[in-house]
Amino acid sequence: MEFSELERIRVEKIARLRAAGVEPYPTRSEVTHTTAEAVRLFEAAEAAGSADPVEVTVGGRLRSMRLMGKIFFAHIEDGSGRLQLFLRVNELGEAAMESFRADYDLGDFIQAAGSMFRTRSGEISLHVRSFKMLAKAITPLPAAKDELVDGQVVRHAALTDPETRYRQRYADLAVNPEVREVFRSRARAIKAVRDFLDERGFLEVETPILQPIYGGAAARPFITHHNQLKQDLYLRISFELYLKRLLVGMLDRVYEIGRDFRNEGVSFKHNPEFTQIEFYMAYADYFKVMELTEQMVAYAAEQVCGKTTITYDGHEIHLAPPWRRLTLRDGILETTGIDIDAHPEVEGLADAMQSKGMHPKPGASRGKLIDGLLGDFLEPTLIQPTFLYNYPRDISPLAKSMPGDSHTVERFEGYVAGMELCNAFTELNDPLDQEQRFLEMGRDYETGDEERHPMDEDYLRAMSYGMPPCGGFGMGIDRLTMLLTDRHTIREVLLFPHLRNEGE
User: Fold this and answer.
1) Distance separating alpha carbons of residues 137 and 104, to the nearest angstrom
2) Looking at the domain assignment, is residue 238 inside a domain?
3) Tally of structural domains, the chain
4) Quick check: is 422 in a domain?
5) Are residue 209 and residue 166 in the same domain, yes or no?
6) Are residues 396 and 319 part of one domain?
């Protein structure tokens, strides 16, 4: 390791501590309470009028140190909060106080034992009787900056450069408490979704990540190879086809929360690996799934934010049911003036787009043209929660056709804050129709086209045993977290987002 001058000084302190018989990275600690637990314990004793001392041993990272004659004031921080330490030479001795001054630095993890008390200024603190090093920090953490604004001290975040924050998330978390709170919120959102489904009789399951045939979504897969089996495998792009196999096996309500992998571009709302929730529900259609979706997202908002009205990107958004229902046809008509139902063939739709000054992609299917109209014109307008429903058949190969309409399927997408949040179908359960859809995908789309779904013969065999009518749903946990924490890029809600190589 190459060290800076400051780091070399700290490495020298490690050697000095060891020479004095002090191990700067001891195997064990004797911590008995978090800082928050210590404070609560003292407050409870204080409220009860107890005269018995509250004895604790706490641990944490040194965040401030201030020497006042023969007294040290310091603050340590752990995952639960901060606590002031009060160290006095009378109790600790000259040698210990000198070691604290000379060998301890901001960022070090330390342990302190003593009794809790309240200072004259009213701050709950620990009167330290003993302390020891738990882990010496060699690299100094970025320091927060204080600025005087209108007579008030304003503290600016210690680490603000996005590139550095994402590459060194450990430092970002260590110095920016609001970032830690984002990931606590993410955990609460996942728990809320899990609790919501568990309470409604859904069974949580696990399906393969390595799959011999990919499917269930429109995306390019990552490919790997199993050496012993001499077999190419794919990192899953979706759980869908495996979860629906379970409905065939009489597990009527199933869900999975886990990672999917898609070999696609990186953007403010895309990462090559991401967390998804999918559920499948026998004897339900897409209208029933709409009801469940709006209830689940509202429940998650209550658990994470304490309310169903949130703020995202300056917009006040109301997540409480019912959400707006809007057909894809009406939405596109409102925003572009094009009636897609009046153009059942790709050529007519392309001509209509050209007449409006648009530039349809040559060779695109009708469904892709409609999807483009949705993304370019309609999606940005959908700020309040909206279910867009009834989608083109050719971009929805796993959804059931609407009765009497061969071009349209029973599919919806949920949009909030101008961003797609979820996708759901009345699931296709006719194995003959499904086989025809797979054949169409193989014939009408070039190899490598993300809309192309390979033939999955085992899935068709499962369907041939009989699949109950069902509704299915998928939602990105990352986007849900973005929404509930008012973060505008997926990198803010992924602990370790995928980045280009440094320097590129």
Assistant:
1) 9
2) yes
3) 3
4) yes
5) no
6) yes
Instruction: For the chain, 504 residues long, give each residue's pLDDT as a single digit of tens.
Output: 889 999 999 999 999 999 999 999 999 999 999 999 999 999 999 999 999 999 999 999 999 999 998 999 999 999 999 999 999 999 999 999 999 999 999 999 999 999 999 999 999 999 999 999 999 999 999 876 655 566 665 556 678 899 999 999 999 999 999 999 999 999 999 999 999 999 999 999 999 999 999 988 888 999 999 999 999 999 999 999 999 999 999 999 999 999 999 998 888 889 999 999 999 999 999 999 999 999 999 999 999 999 999 999 999 999 999 999 999 999 999 999 999 999 999 999 999 999 999 999 999 999 999 999 999 999 999 999 999 999 999 899 999 999 999 889 999 999 999 999 999 999 999 999 999 988 887 755 555 565 566 789 999 999 999 999 999 999 999 999 999 999 999 999 999 999 988 876
**In this structure, is residue 374 part of a structural domain?**
no
Q: Name, in order, each residue with C-beta under 8 angstroms of 63's C-beta and a sequence gap of 6 or more.
A: 75, 76, 77, 82, 106
Contact 434, 428 (CB under 8 A): yes
Do 100 and 165 lie in one domain? The reply is no
Residues 162 and 60 in one domain: no
Query: What's the predicted TM-score (pTM) here?
Result: 0.91
Determine the residue type at 137: A
Cβ atoms within 10 Å of 116's Cβ, excluding its own: 22
Domain that holds residue 162: 145-175
**Does residue 354 form part of some domain?**
no
Spatial distance between the Cα atoms of 418 and 373, rounded to a whole number of angstroms: 14
